[in-house]
Amino acid sequence: MCPTLSRENYFLTVINEAKRHEMQSGGLEQEMREVLLTLAESVRSNQVISRNLLHRVNQIFEAYQAIRLKVSLVSKMEDLFVEEHKTERAQRQIVLHTEFVDKPDQLKRRYMEAIISLLEAIEKNPSLNLLTCIHCGDWYIPYPRAKVAKFCSSNCRNRHHYILRKTKDAGSDGKASGDELMKMK
Ligand SMILES: [Zn+2]
């Protein structure tokens, strides 16, 4: 049995706010950010993950032991157990899981969970697809059946087409198409 180590697709959250994170140059956090972005970029551009990149990930894992094992009673069973010291079976409802050593607001902890969640996503789906929105630049996972996915959300698609139309109208002889502008609002 192999417990899941991270929140699903947590890497998207961290990648999309990575620009705003301030960090020491040459520190572990910076290396983690670079590795995370390089890994995401190799998925986006449909490249093979290089041995060198995997080596860098393993070096991060070696430098920062972020996760420990934990065993807990399944919570419902725990209550039952406390109440009545029930049957043997109730006592044996356990779950083996992991937890992060550091608090969730720490930058290195967040980058660690992001790297792990991206690796888990790739492990689960080797043909994982990642894209960046042509309107806002955010990273996202396209819907599996979308033929051409260029935007992270319908909001961005609408904004993009609205602006495109507006600049087109301004560029032509001012033939503003009121109907189309209305549609986009
Ligand atoms: Zn977007």
Structure report:
This protein is 51% helix and 10% strand. The protein is built from 8 helices and 4 strands; from the N terminus they run H-H-H-E-H-H-E-H-E-E-H-H. Strand 3 and strand 4 (139-140) form a beta hairpin. Helix 2 (28-44) packs antiparallel against helix 3 (51-63). The longest helix is centred in the middle third of the chain and has 18 residues, at 107-124. The protein is globular. The chain has a two-stranded antiparallel ribbon. It has a two-stranded antiparallel ribbon with strand order 3-4. Mean pLDDT is 86; it is low at 174-185. It is mainly α and 185 residues long. The chain has helices at 10-17, 28-44, 51-63, 75-84, 88-91, 107-124, 154-171, 178-184; strands at residues 67-73, 94-100, 131-132, 139-140. The chain starts with 9 loop residues before the first helix and ends with a helix. Residues 133, 135-136, 138, 151-153, 156 line the site of zinc ion. Zinc ion (ZN) binds at residues 133, 135-136, 138, 151-153, 156.
| Individual helix count | 8
Q: So what's the overall shape? A: globular
For the biggest sheet, the summary is: 2 strands, antiparallel
Unreliable stretches covering 5 or more consecutive residues? 174-185
Give the termini distance in whole angstroms.
51 Å
Small ligands present: zinc ion
Instruction: Report the sheet-strand fraction.
Output: 5-15%
Q: What is the share of helical residues?
A: 40-55%
Taking all Cα atoms into account, the compactness measure Rg is: 23 Å
Mean pLDDT: 86
**What is the number of strand segments?**
4
Structural class: mainly alpha
